[in-house]
Model the fold of this input.
Amino acid sequence: MPDIAFINGRFLAWEEATISIDDRGFQFGDAVYEVIRTYRGNPFELASHLARLDRSARELSLLQPYSRDQWMRWIQQGLSLSGYQDAKIYIQLTRGAAPREHSFPSENRPTVVMTIREFHPLGPEVRRAGVNACTREDLRWGRCDIKSVNLLANVLAREEAKKAGVFETILVRDGFVMEGAVSNVMAVQRGVVMTAPEGPRILSGVTRTVVLELAKKEDIAIEERFIPADLLYQVDEVFLTGTTLEVLGVVQIDGNIIGSGQPGPITRTLAARWALLTG
Ligand code: PLP
Done:
């Protein structure tokens, strides 16, 4: 079964799927993106991802050339061409190719790229055991709510995790937890789930929203507020949320054991509810 490539309304063989060296996505990171997961061939929360793509584009005055219905048709077509049941759909929308000049080009001709690849979820052993994380200073810009391809600070943070031999880097700004390099972060203390509020300092994860709704349905209290970084080692539970990670327990941060050293009861409840929703 093939990986699928799509550029500007055409499905192409992977080798033929190329874009101009003048593309502003390549030159300036002047582009936005989405990552969508399928479960048994169905894109999960597609409408939310497409709404966020629209919002990211609008915030940067990027032209979004396709309607949501058109996107849904392209995605369905791509999924049937791939035949994948568990797929990772990547969409990127750039400000197009133009001679290299920082200010916007006079003509607005965006480049739209979509790829569809098979997705290999994390194994059940990792989910059962939980993962380790480290904390690092958040070096990102002031509009983390826009899902832009300007990911250099996230790339460096992921590299820090790799060097530290842990799964994720938790980003800390002015002494407070923002989110992970590729995830949102939630902590549980005395039965209350805390997570950074929506705003320019975090990406409002699609998974974050769904997990907070699941928590409400379970009558679990939620506080959307910034968690002091020095509280992080003392809370009962920490978990990450994200399209590819789902609900993933964190059991050690900077070498400090969190809670019992295993994913805690609220993490396990929310992970189980997530599995019911998507399974
Ligand atoms: N925060 C950051 C920085 C991310 O890169 C991601 C996902 O890639 C998330 C949060 C989680 O977002 P979502 O749940 O929409 O995948």
The two ends are 23 Å apart (CA to CA).
